[in-house]
Design a protein that fits this description.
Blueprint (H helix, E strand, L loop, with lengths): L2 H8 L2 E2 L10 E3 L9 E4 L6 H6 L4 E4 L11 E4 L3 H14 L4 E4 L2 H10 L7 E4 L2 H7 L8 E4 L2 H7 L4 E2 L8 E8 L2 E6 L2 E6 L6 H11 L16 E3 L15 E5 L5 H11 L5 E5 L11 E2 L6 H7 L4 E5 L3 H8 L11
Parallel strand pairs: 2-3, 3-4, 4-5, 6-8, 6-9, 7-8, 14-17, 15-16, 15-17
Antiparallel strand pairs: 1-5, 10-11, 11-12, 13-14
Length: 330
């Protein structure tokens, strides 16, 4: 992209007369900058590293000391707005289909999408939008989970069509994590999707329009259980009557907690958070230090522990540390 075009697109002011006239890509992180890139300097302290890595253009929204007169320096009123303008301009040059969907549907699309399907691009935030610019092609499909963000980037968009719930029949709830059902005369047998999320799963499945490996559902972040023994060591799926659910996305917790209250009435449930949450939906147990979680679970009776504010990978690492030799199950 020409530097002169960038100035026009972002309504920017050129701060110097550079020798370069073209940039190849846009980067937000100085450590990821390569030769020929435009660097968006949200942190002025990162500019030196960006230049060292080969930046051809520095975009700023505050006063800055020019340290390299060979490259271009452009000042704008607001970096976020300038980024939106740049991305929107780039996308407008392609014939694309853009869709907006709920967070839960977006999550299932992300989980089920084949890595080889390069034409289906998922955009949750500005970083995702920047990543796709280098390999965007006509007829690609863009999926957003933020309608206002999508309207800014690609106004010609659609709401993703949801499935007709009346066509979901013969639902068998094997556990709160596993169901069987029929949809449009197709039988789905014991797939790892909660009854709570069947319609969202089917909406994602229909949209993807390709053969899907349902084994990937074990990686879904929606009501994903970790079964543990009485020593709180991880065991295979379904091999214990104790399980943890780690939810990192606060947007899902109200729906999931209410579902657990309705559908898992007889087990003892603990709701553990790493900080106090106002207007919470259940009695919350606050444990700020993740290293104290395992010991607390060992010392307290429970069947289901719903953890909020912790990373899934960190909890897995915690559970698998200092494994005890005895793994008798209740």
């Amino acid at each position: 992209m020409k530097v002169s075009s960038i100035i026009d697109i972002v309504d920017g002011v050129k701060l110097n007369s550079p020798s370069i006239s073209f940039i190849y890509s846009i980067k937000l992180e100085a450590k990821r900058v390569k030769e020929g890139d435009l660097f968006v300097a949200k942190n002025l302290g990162d500019i030196d590293l960006a230049i060292e890595n080969g930046a051809f253009l520095i975009l700023v929204d505050s006063n800055v000391t020019i340290t390299d007169f060979e490259i271009a320096w452009i000042k704008v009123d607001n970096l976020d707005e300038a980024l939106i303008k740049l991305i929107r301009f780039k996308l407008s040059n392609y014939d694309l289909s853009a869709f907006n969907c709920k967070n839960t549907v977006f999550s299932f699309i992300h989980c089920l999408k084949n890595s080889s399907n390069s034409s289906l691009k998922l955009i949750r935030n500005i970083n995702d939008a920047l990543k796709i610019l280098d390999n965007i092609e006509d007829e690609d499909r863009l999926v957003f989970c933020d309608n206002s963000f999508m309207n800014k980037l690609y106004p010609k968009n659609h709401q993703l069509k949801t499935v007709d719930k009346n066509q979901i029949k013969n639902i068998i709830e094997h556990t709160i994590f596993e169901t069987s059902f029929t949809y449009k005369d197709i039988y789905f047998s014991k797939i790892r999707v909660s009854k709570l999320y069947i319609s969202d799963f089917l909406t994602a499945w229909e949209f993807i329009e390709e053969e899907v490996d349902f084994a990937k559902l074990k990686n879904s972040i929606l009501l994903r259980p970790i079964f543990v023994d009485r020593f709180i060591n991880q065991v295979e799926f379904g091999k214990s009557n104790k399980f943890l659910i780690i939810q990192e996305n606060i947007d899902f917790i109200e729906k999931e907690i209410n579902y657990l209250k309705r559908s898992y009435k007889f087990g003892t449930k603990l709701f553990i958070t790493n900080r106090y949450i106002n207007n919470f939906y259940a009695k919350q147990i606050i444990i700020e230090d993740i290293n104290e979680v395992k010991e607390y679970l060992k010392q307290n009776q429970f069947n289901a522990a719903y953890l909020i504010g912790f990373k899934y990978e960190q909890i897995i690492e915690l559970l698998n540390s200092k494994q005890m030799q005895t793994t008798l199950l209740f």
